[in-house]
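Problem: given the chain below (314 residues), write out its structure.
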Amino acid sequence: MTIDLTRVKTYSINSRSALVKKRDFARAPKEKRSFLDFYQSLPSILKGNDLRNIVDAIIKAGRKKKPVIFMCGAHVIKVGLSPVVIELIKRRIITCLSLNGAGIIHDFEIAYQGRTSEDVDAAITEGKFGMNRQTSKFLNQAIAEGVARGLGLGQSVGEAMLEAPMPYKHLSIICQATRLKIPITVHVAVGTDIIHQHPDFKAGLTAEGSWRDFKMLVEIVSRLGQGGVVLNFGSTVILPEVFLKALNLARNLLAPKTINNFTTANFDMIYHYRPAENIVRRPVMPGGRGYYIVGHHEIMLPLLAQAVVEKAEK
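Solution.
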């Protein structure tokens, strides 16, 4: 059989729907453009549209007094973004801060000496990685004393840091969140953090403090329904897993249908399976929207924060 192309059926392009329209195009760059004008010049296509939706969801959550949970891995702190996070805390845009165990380490070192992040390659060959005295002594003591008093891990560290004479605590997201009474939850996997290598580490008290923080997070997650927002920057395993269990437990304890119609967004440098499932897809299956934005934190977080601040003020 010979294919006869003269029999091909065609139709008018005027009758066809289109996914891309000129009204959605980016606007050309120009001199002396304000940030808000630049933001509005982004194309209303794919991730440009997603970013706008995330910004709008954060602003609406604030107006509705719904939680905006900011979860982040320690890399966010290590690339110098603490001032950005602190400003969002001060403006009450972030209403809950959730960290992994490494987050409290790098935040403490910045508050203590204005610098952090050692050269692992150079230190690990001699068994010196993570073996500085000050970080371990302060944090392990703060956790042990605070948890023994009935506090969670985040509050234990936050209160101890706020009271200690540290020259750079204005750059500490933990200090500023504690000062403004923003809930801090810290979720630790025993053995993952440098302070767990030291003899003053108290595994039982650390686990108890982190467990109390998990229960606090469950309570906050239970209020996400009908407009809350969850942002995850750079935690690929710990915080996505913790959030999914917190959401499940909140739905188990309450009517499941009351915790839906909220927004989640994962920001990371590459695409990862677990946050894609546990942040972006599974939590919003009953209703809501999930977004995944790929890009470096040191660019994406300032961009997101500036857009939220300027649009909220407008």
